[in-house]
């Protein structure tokens, strides 16, 4: 195998929302000599990339696939074989495929960009801050609100529209509205999208793959 076990470790159960768990099944079609991998999960950027790369790293040939990325849920179906033309050969191998795909999908899931607000507590502070987030098209995925004496120490996890990364221009706008000195960005660079990057249109290359099948696209190889 070309991958390390640690690359496919699953997210800690205590830190992962059970509703976000992908549903992965692997079924053999013995009369066809291939296995069908079905994945139902929350849609997100780079989902198709992570899935196909995982199967490729595990030395499977993907010779056909169906992708449906309509709405918040993504449906992926892959027809796979070993390089020698054989399907998944055992229950242990089947579980390994499931676990690796689950881990690949889960590990990129993020609660969002972490913002910390520390200022003098006052009436209406929380509602004003969340209003500014909303006006800038941000979604608060999680919040921790505490008060220490006369100080409000609040932590917000925010994401952009449809769960995409927050661009730096939006963050600067929010910091100017709330106050640069009291709102700190704690997220990693991977969670903050540069304004020089192209805005994502849809995850799963939806411009090409909305409710349609594809063959022989990049890493997806034809098999004969």
Automatic annotation (TrEMBL):
Coiled coil: none
Signal peptide boundaries: none
Source lineage: Eukaryota, Viridiplantae, Streptophyta, Embryophyta, Tracheophyta
Keywords: Repeat
Ribosomal protein as UniProt keyword: no
Residue ranges annotated for the ACT domain, each copy included: 114-190
Molecular function terms, GO-annotated: amino acid binding
Name of the protein in question: ACT domain-containing protein ACR
Origin species: Lotus japonicus
Keyword Transcription part of the UniProt annotation: no
């Amino acid at each position: 195998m070309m991958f390390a076990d640690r690359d496919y470790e699953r997210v800690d159960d205590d830190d992962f929302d059970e509703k976000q768990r992908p549903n992965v099944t692997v079924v053999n079609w013995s009369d066809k000599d291939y296995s069908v991998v079905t994945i139902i999960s929350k849609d997100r950027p780079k989902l198709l990339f992570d899935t196909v790369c995982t199967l490729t790293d595990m030395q499977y040939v993907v010779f056909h696939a169906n992708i449906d990325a309509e709405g918040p849920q993504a449906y992926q179906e892959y027809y796979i074989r070993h390089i020698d033309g054989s399907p998944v050969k055992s229950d242990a191998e089947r579980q390994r495929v499931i676990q690796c795909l689950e881990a690949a999908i889960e590990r990129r899931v993020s609660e969002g960009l972490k913002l910390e607000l520390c200022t003098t507590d006052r009436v209406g502070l929380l509602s004003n801050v969340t209003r500014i987030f909303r006006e800038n098209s941000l979604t608060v995925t999680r919040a921790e609100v505490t008060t220490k004496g006369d100080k409000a120490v609040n932590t917000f996890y925010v994401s952009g529209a449809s769960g995409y990364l927050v661009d730096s221009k939006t963050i600067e706008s929010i910091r100017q509205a709330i106050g640069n000195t009291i709102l700190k960005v704690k997220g990693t660079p991977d969670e903050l999208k540069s304004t020089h990057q192209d805005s994502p249109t849809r995850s799963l290359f939806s411009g090409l793959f909305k409710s349609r099948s594809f063959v022989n696209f990049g890493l997806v190889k034809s098999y004969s």
